[in-house]
Amino acid sequence: MTAADPMWTLRRRTSEKWRTHGPDVLPMFVAEMDFPLAPAIKSALLAAVEAGDTGYVDPHDTRAAEAFASYAADTWDWEPAPERMSCTTDVSVVIVESLRRLISPGDGVIVNPPIYPPFFDLVPEAGGSVVEVPLRDDGERYELDPGDRGRGRRPTRSREPLNR
């Protein structure tokens, strides 16, 4: 198992997570940036910086999509089409842009807390209204409650959640 970087290392970082609060607060949301980079990723980044290769991503470069498709096939026996994939800056951009295409202004969008807190801001950014349908906590794990679809919580129609 890979351990998170030590606290003294994390506190030196300049990211929002580690600069928003003082030393008496331990930001507890999980983030991959709390863990060391995989050696292959670190090497590739260092080589790119050394070569000055810091421009925009070539949208026609299919290597990442092909690598993911290969991984998906090996891991999940799923064969997604690389030509239908594209790169993005982060998952939040994908959520907002997807919602903008899938909902009408004011539509309710079901979110199932507990979730990553910034996800609550993405629905209104896309023009929707958050409809909270909390996951059921049985004391051992969280589960979707198939009978709870947010009925009666908002006067608008609701779409199925994207965060399942």
Describe the structure.
It is globular and about 55 Å long. The model has no long low-confidence stretch (mean pLDDT 86). The chain has helices at residues 7-10, 16-19, 39-50, 63-76, 91-102, 119-125, and strands spanning 108-111, 129-132, 136-137, 142-143, 158-159. Strands 2-1-5 form a 3-stranded parallel beta sheet, covered by helices on one side. Strands 3-4 form a two-stranded antiparallel sheet. The protein is built from 6 helices and 5 strands, in the order αααααβαββββ. It is 32% helix and 9% strand. The chain starts with 6 loop residues before the first helix and ends in a 5-residue tail after the last strand. The protein is of the alpha/beta class and 164 residues long.
Concise overview:
The chain has 164 residues and is an alpha/beta fold. The chain has 6 helices and 5 strands.
Question: What would the keywords be for this entry?
Answer:
164 residues, alpha/beta, 6 helices, three-stranded parallel beta sheet, two-stranded antiparallel ribbon
Secondary structure layout plus pairing:
Layout: H1 7-10, H2 16-19, H3 39-50, H4 63-76, H5 91-102, E1 108-111, H6 119-125, E2 129-132, E3 136-137, E4 142-143, E5 158-159
Parallel strand pairs: 1-2, 1-5
Antiparallel strand pairs: 3-4
